[in-house]
Amino acid sequence: MELMKLLDCFGSLSCLTTQITSALILGMILFLVASGLSLIFGVLGVLNFAHGALYMLGAYFTYTLLSIHGNFGVIAILASIGVGVFGVILERVFIKRIYTSPLLYQLLLCYAFILILDDLAKLVWGYEFKSIGLPGAFRRPPLKIFGSFVPSYYVFIIIVGVVVALILWFFLSRTKLGKIIRATAHSSEMVGALGINVQLVYAGVFALGSFLAGLGGVLAGPVRSIYPGMGASVIIESFIVVVIGGLGSIGGAFIGAILIGLMRSFGIIGFPLIEESFVFILMAVVLILRPRGLCGKKES
Amino acid sequence: MRKKGLNRREFLKATAAGSAGLAAGFFWPPKTAVAQAPIRIGFVSIFSGRVAMLGETGLKGAQLAADEYNAKGGVLGRKIEIIHRDSAGKIEEAVRIARDFVVKDKVDFLMDHSSSREAFAVKEVSRDLKVITMVTASETTDHSADPKIWTPYNFRSARQSIHDCCVAGFYAAKIAKEQGLMRWYSISPDYAYGHDSTERFFEFLQKKNPEVKIVGKLWPKLFEPDYTPHITKMLADKPHAFYSALWGGDTVAFIEQALMYGLFEQSKFFCINIADYTVLKALKKVPEGLHTGSRYLKNVPDSPANRDFGDRYQKKYGELPTNWSWETYSGMLFLMEGIKKAKSLEAEKVIKAMKGLRIKAPAGSPDFDGHIVLRDRDHTNIGYAIAWGKTIAKEPYVTDLYYLPWKEILQEEEEWLKKKGWLK
Questions:
Q1: Which H, E and C letters describe B322-345, residue by residue?
Q2: Three-state SS for B372?
Q3: Helix (H), strand (E) at residue B382
Q4: Does this complex have an ipTM over 0.85?
Q5: Residue range A179-202, pLDDT digits in tens
Q6: Which of A15, A118, A264 sits opposite B229 (nearest CB)?
Q7: Which residues on chain A are in Cβ contact (under 8 Å) with B261?
Q8: B192 vs A: CB within 8 A
Q9: What's the pLDDT at B5?
């Protein structure tokens, strides 16, 4: 334990800035993946264990597209859309068949897709890990903020995360389509009775969730290793985010992801040997005190 | 009523069958001249998921050796055949595969190219079924050093953590003295190999340079995707230098992320696993001035045999070998030369032949005159080239190479084993 170091950090603006930005970086990528997961579960009722594999596809699509076209911004959007389209195919051909099946079938199907997509990635891109490297625009010295250094690419990730969170909030709470999605989550039968094509809503939500996972992979690509099975590294933490934030809540996913980031970035200063356990402790505390999650709704 | 004896049809059939039988007997070569069954090797490793590279490049190294022997007519007049299966990194699966190889597939030898977790379990299959197993990937020292778990049926061609860390510690101590690096940190994966490597490294570093102080250790989980909290922690604590046993994609991710924060400008980085082509090629630009151990490099050892091995491998597979490739290649050389020497496939005879077997190999270090040896005492590989040096952006990627004579490595190892009570 290095409690004094933790207290010193709380008293230092530069240390606080470094650790908070560090938390936001971890949090934003987690949020992107977890928000898609939460959305799909909230509306479709499917625990999409293969969501990590969609994150992996986002990174691989970026890797491939960047070898054809050099503009990272364009590629980021194209790769994320590509994962969204892949998500629709996955949902229409396979996932839709198990909406009414017991949970075990969902888990089996999703787990099968983790294995299939990992092996497909191995066949298409090879078994060796790939690295994209920082986009040219971000290859510059880190920014100096309150005496601490923050890499410009990480500032970009934080901005994208916050913007996506705001757009999602606006879309789901202020637009007609958003209301339809929320209504479908509440009662798909009633939405269907109103003449709305529920299957189309399901496909659209799965596409949006996949797009978000893909975007997470796209943004992680330049700073993380890309290899078959890389989705496994984010899926567990994404589930924890969803549990902490509340199943189906996008706002909860945002708060949960940032809380996990903070736990890790400050935990490592005071408790470097057990830093990762704080994430699980936080989840346990939330489950004991508020089992439905921070922003989860009470089950009727 | 049917007549006694043969009718015409039956006669013709019998004649045809008899003629065919005779012809077969005539044309069929006598049993001794039949092309003998191949020497079968069961190769168990990980071919899927995050460590698929372990199995894939390991198998390529072993297959290259097999093909080279086969091109010369095989061994004892028999071709070599490798069959491989994926354990997916699961202990129980590795054990099942190893058993099936022996019981159902009737392999003559096992090649265990697993991580240490599975290797300890496969060792028991080898002991139980009395089948020689060449261990080609597990580097944990205990595997062959701990007498309580040792078995005569296991041989190891893989490098060993204690040897690597001895060279690493001595090299780091030298640089620490030259540059005044006194406050040290570490960041290594949180599992047996990471802990073993880091503890041994610091033991040797402090033995050679007792003024060095360890001010912090970080243990991210294996396959951690984001090291930002660890990097910012080290930026805050400002160590002079730090050691790492991160490997593969984890090393690449850590270096890319640390570069963004300028961590290497603040603290000197000593990582045992940068100098493998998979890591060097994955890095967009190899940063200069990092200190690394050699995993596989065409210039370590800087010998015609090693360069030629690299070229042959690249010609066959279109890529450069990895550390795992030379380990399996060496394992195959040991096995085949052992069989040749024993003139038999019988386990007891081959064991006897492989004890202390000294062979010329690409990995052989200069002070072993280009040879590697399966040490009689514990059946483990010694004499392979180990070097440390500084990274540069272009080939050969590592310069200012530092070798520790094997005589010294072996002395240090012996001392350590005696301290553990594993050697009298």
A1: CHHHHHHHHHHHHHHHHHHHHCCC
A2: strand
A3: strand B381-382
A4: yes
A5: 999 999 888 889 999 999 999 999
A6: A264
A7: 142, 149, 151
A8: no
A9: 42
CA neighbours closer than 13 Å in the CB half-sphere of residue B43: 26
Dist. CA A286–CA B410, nearest whole Å: 54
pLDDT at B35: 61
pLDDT digits (tens, 9 = 90+) for B172-196: 999 999 999 999 999 999 988 899 8
What is the residue whose two structure tokens read 């229409």?
Answer: A92
Distance CA B401, CA B109 (A): 37
Question: CB A18 to CB B236 under 8 A?
Answer: yes
In one letter, which amino acid is B27?
Answer: F
Mutation target for B interface from A17, A123, A225: give the one with most B CBs within 10 A: A225
Contact A227 B216 (CB under 8 A): no
Strand B291-296 versus strand B213-218 pairing type = unpaired
- CB–CB of B146/B121 below 8 Å? no
CA distance A42 to chain B (A): 27
**Continuous H helices in A130-194:** 152-174, 176-186, 188-193
Would you call B235 and A18 a contact, using CB atoms and an 8 Å cutoff? Answer: yes
For chain B, say whether A129 makes contact (Cβ under 8 Å): yes
The Cα–Cα gap between B166 and B412 comes to: 7
Q: CA-CA distance, A195 to A175, in Å (whole number)?
A: 18
Mutate to test the interface with B, among A18, A124, A145 (most CBs of B within 10 A): A18
Of the CA atoms within 13 Å of residue A295, those in its CB half-sphere come to 16
Q: Is B256 on the interface with A (CB under 8 A)?
A: yes
Q: Could you tell me where the DSSP H helices lie in A69-102?
A: 72-93
Structure tokens belonging to residue B284: 């967009």
Give the Cα separation of B184 and A272 in Å (integer): 15
Q: Which residue of A has its CA nearest to B48?
A: A119
